UniProtKB/TrEMBL annotation:
Lineage top rank: taxon: Bacteria
InterPro entries: DUF951
Name this protein carries in UniProt: DUF951 domain-containing protein
Pfam (any one): DUF951
Species annotation: Sporosarcina soli
Amino acid sequence: MEGKVFGLNDVVEMKKQHPCGTNAWKIIRMGADIRIKCEGCGHSVMIPRNEFTKKMKKVIVKAES
């Protein structure tokens, strides 16, 4: 199975939506843990990389290189 490809500043869609009503998140930090910021309300969350890859659906907007 191919791994999910994502990078810094990509906007991704998560499986569950945020309580504010959106499920679009921007990746703002990458490492062993990944910090994502809600595009709706600006709330940020840090989660482990393996948990993030399970909960991520797809990349909505690819960051410019």
